[in-house]
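User: Quick sanity check before I run a bigger batch. Here is a single chain. Can you write out its predicted 3D structure?
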Amino acid sequence: MPTPELISPRSARVAAARRLGRRNFRGRDRLFLAEGPQAVREAAGHRAGDTATLVELFATLDAAERYADIVGEARAAGARIHLASEDVIADISTTVTPQGLVGVCRFLDTPFEDILAARPRLVAVLAHVRDPGNAGTVLRCADAAGADAVVLTDASVDLYNPKAVRASVGSHFHLPVAVGVPVEQAVAGLQSVGVRILAADGAGTDDLDDELDKGTMGGPTAWVFGNEAWGLPEETRALADAVVRVPIHGKAESLNLATAAAVCLYASARAQRASGGCRSVTESWLRTSDSRLPRADGGKSDGRG
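Assistant: Done. Predicted structure follows.
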């Protein structure tokens, strides 16, 4: 069994974990919280060289029994396991309805120079992104699209904000992320290793569909995404090789940041995998799922449109 149950929120261990909800303590200790079974599972399986990422795990008795495999993985990774009351978990957690597992993890960020040395083909650069939920969701989109790295500029939100960690649903542990990089340095560094810079902007002079039709998106690409409210400033747009807008074919005024990022990143992923990888996955899914979708006339789709 793990160590005895921690029944008091005034425990020193609980207090140390609770303060990681604040940015200054996270930065001082270089530790952050991962909440819920998916994030804790990913943390337990992650290592930076010989160092395990997961340091501690707090779990209610119910969660420890329900997710015994995750607790086992955490223990195998060398994490300290603490059985905790629901009050303790609620005290540590930053969610309204905690799921009974909270992990304390070491910082994950990668030096920007290491990202450049790896010669990335697809990168998401978050410039002036302030909402942690958006940052985490873009990180998740980049992970799903097969990006090689994410870069958060020095004007963007904290990567380890609990809301950003939750929104990434474990993607924090999947791909390199550099933090605190000035946007000018990020652009110049990526260009120096042959990466084309595309600034995503609703008022862009180039259309994403046109870029795809011209065949210009198959090479190494970095997308720069701006602030949720005002987009990218002119001086940042001027750094890019092209300023690209996602076409709006319907009546919507615009797309939110995370949705636009998903569209742009997947467009690049498709272009870079034009030999068949991305298309074959998509078409395979359509062949197995479209036949089960109801049609407007009450029949079934035949998979042809």
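The CA atoms of residues 122 and 275 lie 17 Å apart.

User: Great, the batch can go ahead then.
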